[in-house]
Amino acid sequence: MHKEKWSHLLYRDLTRERHALAFLLPQTTSFAVMETDLLTEYERYLRVPELLALQKPIEARHHTDELLFQVVHQVEELWMKAAIDEVGRVIELLERGSGEKGAGESLELARSGLHRIYLIEKLMCDQLHLLETMAPIAYFHIRAGLGKGSGLESPGFNHMLRAVPQIDEAFARICAARKVEVIDLLRNPDADRMLFAIAEAMVDVDAAFQRFRSVHLSLVKRTIGAGTPSLKGNPIELLERNAQREFFPRLWQAREMLFRDFVPGELEA
Fold it and tell me: What is the pLDDT of residues 150-191, one digit of tens each?
């Protein structure tokens, strides 16, 4: 039976096990043959056929682990897209919080949005560990098909580098409107409990992204070694320097200011 006709009939006749069996379809099968009325509403809403067609078919992969490699990086881009969308709302809510009417609700929503970004970054970091299950020789073969592509070209990653620092600009404006400095919040959180909570949520976001970059750096080292340049020819030292950069340097510097005049006391056992 012709491959496309066979896949069409199989897809039409799947019952309870249809989703499990669907993965038995040949990787070369075109999803174009699957008529819209054969798809569930779940599949149509999430555009599952299009989504599952975004990965290389089996015969085009350089290694069996290439599917995992592609999926992890594609999911990273999706999580970064979601985080960037959240960043825009957080900035808008902080701007609203500068006024008096509804300021408390807007600021609490901003804090909640920051926490969501932190959780997204945590997922971005956690899923990188999947790539640690790949042997270096697997990436050796996969790398042959990457051209001169580099993770530094990630649109989501670069958008986050541009967008997230704008949160600090909005936070600085609201601090000025409330006549409070970051160091004041650290010395006395009661000076403005809501701004203190937002500042701590911003630190969570910054620290989580730094962990993501650190885990990525460790992954690169364990895969290609510290002395192997990227496909762009960049040395690993570039990743090491970038991993130390912060979204919100003011918040970290304020911590140094807090402890600058610290004098150790006597041990109280």
Answer: 888 899 999 999 999 999 999 999 999 999 999 999 999 999
Specify the number of domains making up the chain. 2
The residue written with tokens 């140094």 in the block is 256
Q: Are residues 17 and 98 in the same domain?
A: no
Q: Which residue has the tokens 């990436």?
A: 139
Write the CA distances from 264 to 28, 253, 259, integer angstroms. Answer: 69, 21, 11
pLDDT beyond 90 at 12: no
User: Residue 107 in contact with residue 173, Cβ under 8 Å?
Assistant: no
Determine the average pLDDT of the residues in 108-132.
97
CA-nearest of 54, 263, 250 to 171 is 250
Tokens of 13: 């006749």
- 48 and 175 belong to one structural domain: no
Residue 234 domain-assigned (yes or no): yes
Q: Which two tokens stand for residue 60?
A: 């085009």
Alpha-carbon span 87 to 107, nearest angstrom: 14
